């Protein structure tokens, strides 16, 4: 057995000795040149990186800036002041249009012909009588008296007041008649035209009339859809990840499952919509346009994202923690629940919220299951017809009225706001869970 | 300083001649392979009660593999196969009557790198008793935590900061915390896998003293690369080489009068 010892000690050849001192390789001119070139390469790389970041930041500022510039005015709406005399007989018969029109006509005594009066009538939103009805319902004492009320103006007057029509163009190209412009100017001169915060934009459902259209229905629809998505995909996704990462044997079948999960994450979202259409609507007969189905489809879509993120987070937990727990007699499940999962939670949360944000911004699969419908009512349950914010943006962007342009941008801002909020929640949750140790 | 002078400089507490002591754990014909690669080629070894057994040998010789067989930690390694028979008090460790969870509560383990849970010092020690239901009520648990930390020689240093995270301690303190965590579940055997390799000499001395004290109540198996350490803390030493157990005897015998040339070569530092 001595040969073993000999072999291990004798096999090392003597190291080549390079002369140190002035003749050293590291002190010559050639090496100094190489060193300069290496530093220059690093500076070039740093500059390129900084430039890339600057370009990206500029693009972002331009994008958000243009959307904000276009959408900001949608958060304000124009209202007209009227001295309304409420006739009990008219109120009893539900005629709230007549008192409004009488009050408006009273402000323009010189207009007597039918055409002129029709122009005046068009200054008011077609929703104004309903506003008046609501006011009377809140305060029945109004009936029989003369009150000053502010009611919503038509979207054309709203846009004119916000300066979105070009006054220097001739009538035909402007898209708004001279008579309306003159009437609006007269109201403005009399102080009967004012702008206020547009609560309708957040509370109302969709409408064909831009001034009455809101994204309230879409926001509620988005929240309901997201709720279903979260309730389904988060527990299933985390449980699947824990099983695959901590318990499943590593064999050909789990390998196959892993490959397929990775592939699913890359499947175009519209495919999930088709699947939802075929399975949930076609086979199970669930209602169309419902947040329930939308949430199911989104859950299928987000599952692979959550599983992949959760597996990565679980893998990142040091094995020494598992050893420590197992070695004092914790069962594998206790090891996972007490030690591994809490440590992986920040990463899992981040992945989950990225998946949720993707689901919040997704449109394509919802088009396939009918969530693109024009829905006026705000949904009250998971099976009510609903639409979601990105689909609402898509539909408003398609509408011809000028006033929908700014509402489209406003809806984009609101959607971005929700996404920022989600990411903020992710950051805060990370902080909380990381601080625990 | 040679190993021999080391032995003379530090006479051990136990200088009685090696009387036959009951074997706590017995290994017979233990073979382990990772996939197709054999790691242990038939190990026969007795682990005596209330003694410290040191496993020494060059890297990759299978010491740690053998250690991890004793509490079935190898079960967690994919593709690891264990053959042969290991008994704890006569019961087959790999048999049906012993559950791995129960086994690991009876045979605790301390790892090479201190690995406290990222929880408070208190929770680190209390975790084992909690999951095994060893303490009923707050007071009893406090008692167990205090006793374990005292036995691990850490109580004086951490009594004021039990709520601080275990990871905030120094390396040596973390390792003693891991020992406290292991003894909190009242094991019968403690396995230590190079417990001092990540520690400085002062922390190492602390742990070595601790091992000597723990011997009164526990059976200890320690893997070490440091032969002075093996000489200082163990009563028996087993020398492993290339998956075989070359020699196992009283520590003094191994270091002063090894029977095998390979042992001789290793302890005199000719290879390894």
Description:
Chain A: Keywords: Cell membrane, Membrane, Transmembrane, Transmembrane helix, Transport. Chain A: InterPro entries: DUF3333, MetI-like, MetI-like_sf, Phosphate_PstA. Chain A: Residues 219-426 form the ABC transmembrane type-1 domain. The complex is a heterodimer of chains A (437) and B (272). Chain A has 437 residues and is mainly alpha-helical. Chain A folds into two domains: 76-197, no CATH class; 216-435, Orthogonal Bundle (MetI-like fold), CATH 1.10.3720.10. Helices cover 66% and strands 5% of the residues of chain A. Chain A has a three-stranded antiparallel β-sheet. Chain A is elongated, with a radius of gyration of 33 Å. In chain B, strand 9 (236-241) and strand 10 form a beta hairpin. In chain B, helix 4 packs across helix 5 (138-151), helix 4 packs parallel to helix 7 and helix 5 crosses helix 7 (171-183). With 272 residues, chain B is of the alpha/beta class. Chain B has helices spanning 3-9, 63-70, 100-106, 121-132, 138-151, 155-158, 171-183, 201-214, 227-233, 251-256, 261-267, and strands at residues 23-34, 37-48, 52-56, 80-88, 91-92, 107-110, 189-193, 219-223, 236-241, 244-250. Chain B is globular, with a radius of gyration of 18 Å. In chain B, the strands form two sheets. Chain B has a six-stranded mixed β-sheet, with helices on both faces. In chain B, strands 2-1-4-5 form a four-stranded antiparallel β-sheet, covered by helices on one side. Chain A binds chain B through residues 1-2, 4-5, 8-9, 249-250, 318, 320-331, 334, 338-339, 343, 437, and chain B through 71, 73, 76, 78, 101-105, 108-109, 111, 113, 115-119, 127-128, 131-132, 165, 167, 178, 181-182, 184-185, 260-262, 265, 270-271.
């Amino acid at each position: 057995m001595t040969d073993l010892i000999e072999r291990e000690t004798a096999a090392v050849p003597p190291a080549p000795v390079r002369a140190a001192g002035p003749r050293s390789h590291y002190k010559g001119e050639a090496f100094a040149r190489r060193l300069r070139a290496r530093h220059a390469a690093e500076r070039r790389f740093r500059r390129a990186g900084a430039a890339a970041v600057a370009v990206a930041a500029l693009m972002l500022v331009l994008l958000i800036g243009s959307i904000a510039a276009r959408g900001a005015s949608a958060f304000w709406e124009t209202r007209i002041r009227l001295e309304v005399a409420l006739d009990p007989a008219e109120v009893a018969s539900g005629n709230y249009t007549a008192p409004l029109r009488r009050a408006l006509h009273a402000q323009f005594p010189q207009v007597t012909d039918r055409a002129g009066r029709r122009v005046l009538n068009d200054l008011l939103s077609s929703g104004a009588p309903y506003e008046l009805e609501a006011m009377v319902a809140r305060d029945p004492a109004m009936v029989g008296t003369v009150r000053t009320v502010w009611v919503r103006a038509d979207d054309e007057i709203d846009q004119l007041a916000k300066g979105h029509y070009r006054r220097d163009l001739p009538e035909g190209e402007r898209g708004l008649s001279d008579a309306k412009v003159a009437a609006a100017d007269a109201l403005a001169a009399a102080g009967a035209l004012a702008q206020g915060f547009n609560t309708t934009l957040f509370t109302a459902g969709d409408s064909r009339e831009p001034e009455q259209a809101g994204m309230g229905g879409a926001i509620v629809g988005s929240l309901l859809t997201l709720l279903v998505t979260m309730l389904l995909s988060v527990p299933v996704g985390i449980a699947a990840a824990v099983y695959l990462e901590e318990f499943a044997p590593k064999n050909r079948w789990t390998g196959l499952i892993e490959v397929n999960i990775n592939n699913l994450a890359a499947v175009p979202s519209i495919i999930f919509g088709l699947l939802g259409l075929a399975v949930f609507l076609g086979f199970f007969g669930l209602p169309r346009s419902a947040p329930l189905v939308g949430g199911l489809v989104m859950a299928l879509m987000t599952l692979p994202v959550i599983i992949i993120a959760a597996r990565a987070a679980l893998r990142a937990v040091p094995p020494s923690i598992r050893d420590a727990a197992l070695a004092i007699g914790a069962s594998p499940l206790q090891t996972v629940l007490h030690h591994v999962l809490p440590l992986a939670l920040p990463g899992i949360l981040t992945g989950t919220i990225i998946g949720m944000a993707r689901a919040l911004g997704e449109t394509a699969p919802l088009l396939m299951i009918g969530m693109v419908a024009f829905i006026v009512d705000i949904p009250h349950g998971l099976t009510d017809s609903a639409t979601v914010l990105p689909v609402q943006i898509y539909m408003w962007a398609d509408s011809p009225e000028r006033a929908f342009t700014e509402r489209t941008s406003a809806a984009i801002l609101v959607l971005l706001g929700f996404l920022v909020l989600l990411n903020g929640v992710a950051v805060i949750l990370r902080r909380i869970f990381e601080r625990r140790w | 300083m040679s190993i021999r002078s080391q032995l003379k400089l530090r006479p051990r507490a136990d200088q009685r001649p090696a009387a036959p002591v009951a074997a706590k754990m017995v290994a017979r014909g233990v073979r382990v392979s990772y996939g197709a690669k054999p790691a242990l080629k038939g190990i026969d070894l007795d682990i005596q009660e209330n003694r410290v057994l040191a496993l020494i040998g060059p890297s990759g010789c299978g010491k740690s593999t053998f250690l991890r067989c004793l509490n079935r930690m190898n079960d967690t390694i994919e593709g690891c196969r264990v053959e042969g028979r290991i008994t704890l008090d006569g019961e087959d460790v790999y048999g049906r009557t012993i559950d791995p969870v129960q086994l690991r509560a009876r045979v605790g383990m301390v790892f090479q790198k201190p690995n406290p849970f990222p929880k408070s010092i208190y929770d680190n020690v209390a975790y084992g008793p909690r999951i095994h239901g060893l303490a009923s009520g707050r007071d009893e648990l406090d008692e167990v935590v205090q006793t374990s930390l005292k036995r691990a020689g850490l109580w004086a240093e951490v009594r004021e900061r039990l709520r601080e995270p275990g990871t905030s301690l120094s390396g040596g303190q973390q390792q003693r915390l891991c020992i406290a965590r292991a003894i909190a579940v009242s094991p019968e055997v403690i396995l230590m896998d190079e417990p001092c390799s990540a520690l400085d000499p002062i922390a190492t001395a602390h742990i070595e003293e601790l091992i000597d004290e723990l011997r009164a109540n526990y059976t200890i198996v320690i893997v070490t690369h440091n032969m002075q350490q093996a000489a200082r803390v163990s009563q028996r030493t087993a020398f492993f080489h290339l998956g075989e157990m070359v020699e196992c005897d009283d520590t003094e015998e191994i270091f002063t009068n090894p029977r095998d040339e390979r042992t001789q070569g290793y302890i005199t530092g000719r290879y390894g």
